[in-house]
Design goal:
Blueprint lengths: L3 E5 L7 E4 L16 E4 H5 L6 E6 L14 E5 L9 E6 L2 E8 L8 E4 L8 E3 L5 E11 L4
Antiparallel strand pairs: 1-4, 2-3, 4-5, 5-10, 6-7, 6-10, 7-8, 8-9
Amino acid sequence: MGNIKILRGVFDTPLELKHAGVAAGFPSPAEDYLHETLDFNRDYIRHPEASFYGDVEGDSMEGAGLLDGDRVIIDRAVEPHHGSIVVAWWDGGFTMKFLDLTHRAEGYIELRPANDRYPVFKIDNPDAFEVWGTVIHLIRTFE
């Protein structure tokens, strides 16, 4: 059932990278001028003590651009809202889905995949369910 593997990250070590805009069309004449420094922890991790990595397993979220083997950054301190991609603990395992709050007044919420081949999970027992964290960034390796 689970489609994400949770990993503890170390987000207090500075990782600085030189940063410049990258043209997706013609080469930019500004490419010789590197401007600022990109610090992964400063720029992408808002709550280091509440942040984790997750490795995506499977294809239930491929319609949202989250593919098998991708890595996401999960922040447990970010309050999820309707439409957030969340990591939830449900039915004995972790799963990553869209949070659908449109049925809250009817006594349940839904976890929605981004692939029509997978079912929508109807959550009507809050004792067996927890939104564990909110997905805030995607990391993809191409080679």
